């Protein structure tokens, strides 16, 4: 019997019973469901942010295709129109699919109500085992899991809750979120280049015959597109770099704020970190938001933590479980 090295803190419990593994039931999605089937967080702020994102993407599609691509077709620059039309709309499609996948992917939530006295008794854990419990979900909290107050669930390897995707970025959907930032940054850069090219091309002619619309409307649409492109490019490039560094260093946004002493797991850095998020085999599918990452032997999602994160409300458990 391993004696505990220190007394339990408020949200820890020592279980003094025999060893036994337990079967876990399917994860209960709770209220975060759409049509009773798909993961969708019912947060009004997140839903508004998502709609706003979609409207801005719709505007970019309209401005690029109607003002810039149409103008290229009108001046018989067919090759330019086709290449840029396919590239821009292809990036939009990839970004939209990545967005939908991030919004509607369960981020890696932890089963609720697994830390009731009865369930803990059923576990028959090894003597001296320390487990962490989230008092809000009443769940046994795996290592690196954190509680999200918007999703109202504990999420494994939670990075942060992003209102632009109305979801937590966690173990199960980080790939889609990274791809979303990558494709939005790429299409924004493409839109910026196209807009500047259009201005250079048309400014001498005072935009006469430059698009199907009248010159003032074209200029206003292009200025707004340039402004939107710059804003999105900066925002998503920063997000992409932050995410990439977090994956490369195997440290989530929350963990970066914690001291290294609190870290009890083995960090899997660099390419190993990328493989943990995007899948075992490095391939072109890493860039495809339709394909879910494939893992030959993913870590068991439910592990007992032995650290105190001091994150949640203090709700002492009764340690006298026999
Ligand atoms: Zn929780
Ligand atoms: Zn969340």
TrEMBL record:
According to its record, how does it sit in the membrane?
Answer: Multi-pass membrane protein
The Gene Ontology terms for molecular function here are:
protein-cysteine S-palmitoyltransferase activity
Query: Any coiled-coil ranges, and where?
Result: none
Residue ranges of domain Palmitoyltransferase DHHC in the record: 134-259
Q: What is its EC number?
A: 2.3.1.225
For this UniProt record, the keywords arranged alphabetically read as follows: Acyltransferase, Membrane, Transferase, Transmembrane, Transmembrane helix
Q: Name one GO cellular component term.
A: membrane
The UniProt record lists the keyword Transmembrane: yes
Q: Which reaction does it catalyse?
A: L-cysteinyl-[protein] + hexadecanoyl-CoA = S-hexadecanoyl-L-cysteinyl-[protein] + CoA
Q: Which domain of life is it from?
A: Eukaryota
Instruction: Specify whether Transport is a keyword of the entry.
Output: no
Q: What is known of its domains?
A: The DHHC domain is required for palmitoyltransferase activity.
Family, per the entry?
Answer: Belongs to the DHHC palmitoyltransferase family.
Q: What is this protein called?
A: Palmitoyltransferase
Q: Which organism is it from?
A: Ramazzottius varieornatus
| Gene (name only) | RvY_07008
């Amino acid at each position: 019997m391993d004696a505990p090295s220190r007394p339990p803190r408020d949200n820890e419990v020592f279980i003094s019973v025999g060893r036994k593994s337990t079967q876990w039931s399917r994860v209960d999605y709770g209220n975060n469901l759409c049509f009773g089937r798909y993961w969708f967080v019912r947060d009004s702020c997140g839903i508004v942010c998502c709609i706003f994102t979609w409207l801005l993407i719709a505007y970019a599609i309209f401005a690029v295709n109607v003002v810039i691509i149409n103008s290229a077709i009108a001046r018989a620059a067919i090759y330019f129109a086709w290449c840029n039309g396919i590239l821009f709309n292809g990036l939009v499609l990839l970004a939209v699919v990545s967005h939908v996948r991030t919004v509607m992917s369960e981020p890696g939530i932890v089963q609720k109500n697994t830390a009731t006295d009865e369930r803990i008794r059923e576990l028959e854990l090894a003597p001296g085992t320390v487990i962490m419990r989230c008092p809000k979900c009443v769940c046994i909290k795996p290592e690196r899991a954190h509680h999200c107050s918007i999703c109202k669930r504990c999420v494994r390897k939670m990075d942060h809750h992003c209102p632009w995707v109305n979801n937590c970025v966690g173990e199960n959907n980080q790939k889609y979120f990274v791809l979303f930032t990558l494709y939005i940054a790429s299409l924004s850069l493409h839109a910026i280049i196209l807009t500047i090219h259009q201005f250079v091309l048309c400014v001498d002619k005072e935009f006469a015959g430059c698009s199907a619309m009248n010159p003032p409307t074209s200029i206003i649409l292009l200025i707004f597109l340039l402004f939107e492109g710059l804003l999105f490019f900066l925002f998503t490039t920063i997000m992409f770099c932050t995410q990439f560094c977090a994956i490369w260093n195997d440290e989530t946004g929350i963990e970066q704020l914690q001291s290294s002493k609190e870290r009890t797991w083995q960090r899997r850095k660099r390419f190993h970190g990328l493989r943990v998020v995007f899948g075992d085999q490095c391939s072109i599918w890493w860039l495809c938001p339709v394909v879910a990452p494939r893992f030959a032997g993913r870590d068991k999602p439910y592990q007992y933590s032995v650290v105190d994160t001091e994150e949640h409300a203090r709700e002492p458990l009764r340690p006298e479980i026999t």
